[in-house]
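Researcher: Here's the sequence for the chain we discussed earlier.
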Amino acid sequence: MSGALKILGNSLRNVWTAYEHQLHSHPVRTQAITSGALWALGDVFSQKIEGRKKIDFKRSLVTAGYGAVFIGPVGHGWYVALDKFARARFRIGSPAFIATKVVLDEGLFGPIHVLGFFAYMTLAEGGSWEDVKRKCKNDFWSAYAAELVFWPAFQAVNFWKVPVRHQLLAVNLACLLDATFLCWIQQQDDWTKILPGWRGKEATTKKLQDAVSST
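Model: Thanks. This is the structure I predict for it:
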């Protein structure tokens, strides 16, 4: 048993070393591949939640495209720029440093990410721009509100404890849950009717929408 664990440990270390090397040598490409793989896996999980007996690999491949084309490259550039912005203004690791990164991440990148996902998936599945508008109108605010339940706390810990060179990896791993959630929403006509208790949060969602509209 100890021998098997040692072999497993050595294998994991080798994988980590190879990943670190690729991340240093080819950061954008590495993040694109990692994001694509994790978003495809998230879609597979989503299909399992939906109760599908047979995996739609075409759908998973389309989802992987979003991870590889948008999340990986754009996410890489965003987090590098975000760190530079915060470093230039606040002491690294200070409450102001962390809060600034969290607020900008959730206030700017978060909405773009959700809207981008709905637009990409709707068009990739053969929908029109009218379908995109309808999907975003029906699901954006509720999906964004749900995302705000998880991401601010996660990103606060990520920006506080995780070294900058590994923050993208942490986000990619967390995106496995995010991808599963968004892929599932994409396939629902009104997901708030399915999750028990979420209808009661519609007032909060409406307040969020009204607050943004009034600014």
